[in-house]
Amino acid sequence: MPKPLPLLVDASPVCCPPLTSDEALSAADAAGVAVRLKALADPTRLRLVSFLLGSAEAEACTCDLAPYVGLSEATVSHHLKQLLDAGLVTKERRGMNVYYRAHREALGALARVLDCC
Known about the structure:
With 117 residues, the chain is mainly alpha-helical. 50% of the residues lie in helices and 12% in strands.
């Protein structure tokens, strides 16, 4: 059975040098990057982030996202919670709806770590 990744306590953008730098990646930084990558390593979650990044309002509620991915709102909420726990999206409750936004800074920081080309 694979060893589970540690729970992420700090959901702030990952702050470590690119993998191609001369600095060795610390164990803590490696765990932080891995947790974030694990949250993104799902086709539905990638589609949700893509929708959020591409929407004109830069946000969406689960009622908008569920039809887009063809899943129930409960399942979409589960996927969004994984992204939220990894610090890759933010949320705001408005009445009965919860609106999600992609955390551009966190996604950008993750992209900079992976910049290897």
